[in-house]
Amino acid sequence: MLKLKPIFKAKGITKRFNGIIALDKVSFEIYKNEIVSLIGPNGAGKSTAFNLINGFLPIDAGSIMFNDENLNGLLPYQIAQKGIAYTFQDIRLFNRLSVLDNVMTALKHQHGEDWMTPFFLWKLVNKEEKMLKEKAFSILEFVGLKEKYNSNADSISYGQMKLLSLARALAVIYGKQNSLILLDEPVAGVHPRMIDNIVQLIKKIRENRNTVLFIEHNMNVVMGISDRVIVLNAGVKIVEGKPNDIKQNKEVILAYLGHREHAA
Ligand code: ADP
Ligand code: MG
What we know:
Layout: E1 6-17, E2 20-31, E3 35-39, H1 46-53, E4 61-66, E5 69-70, H2 76-82, E6 84-87, H3 99-108, H4 117-123, H5 126-143, H6 158-172, E7 180-184, H7 192-207, E8 211-215, H8 219-225, E9 228-233, E10 236-241, H9 243-247, H10 250-257
Parallel strand pairs: 3-8, 3-9, 6-7, 7-8
Antiparallel strand pairs: 1-2, 1-4, 4-5, 9-10
The protein binds adenosine-5'-diphosphate and magnesium ion.
Magnesium ion binds near residues 46, 47 and 89.
């Protein structure tokens, strides 16, 4: 039998904030080309898990392996260069830049740290600039934002901002093999029509041989597109499994009943 090897392994990851334990020895694995969702009531530790993976927060204990490399101690830009991209729950775009420039700056991150950007820009020969533009346009086309390329990022709709943050994440892993994309609540607060749009995009991202880990409260979306679901509650992983098993799991139902606002 073919033994699959995970491309991502979190082992006993732990994070405390002033005595509060936000994540307590959480372990999980992700296989190449999977769509995995991370669910759980508010405060469960989902975003904290993302922040440990992308290097925004230092890990207190445990380890994170990605493509057989230990990510512990790496800076966010180094983790991005290894092929992990992410979107924030609260979007975070460059509001005063155009849609196109938002994607261009994310593409340039492939070449180094933020502070290098002006220097890098200055050094760019026309040909490179043209190539980057072409890449950026192809990503905008992929997410359906090409027509908006010249608009300021703060002038587009909320759903389009979500698409743009997705485009920026795709730019970070552009052309990389074995990458992982982390999406923190990709459809939260989005118009139902746009939800369908984003769901189709996540499927397309996987079809392009990518791997997706996403946090989401919309249970139709979670159960509709996930290969596996991991459930956190109060910093602890309570269960993981296929969507159908999760739906019927008593502990999961109980965890959500305690937080009615997110009950499915
Ligand atoms: P979720 O994304 O599942 O809603 P979070 O990971 O944001 O949960 O939060 C988990 C717990 O950690 C919560 O109790 C939250 O208040 C706390 N927490 C998260 N980030 C911080 C931080 N930067 N400083 C202090 N406490 C935090
Ligand atoms: Mg969160």
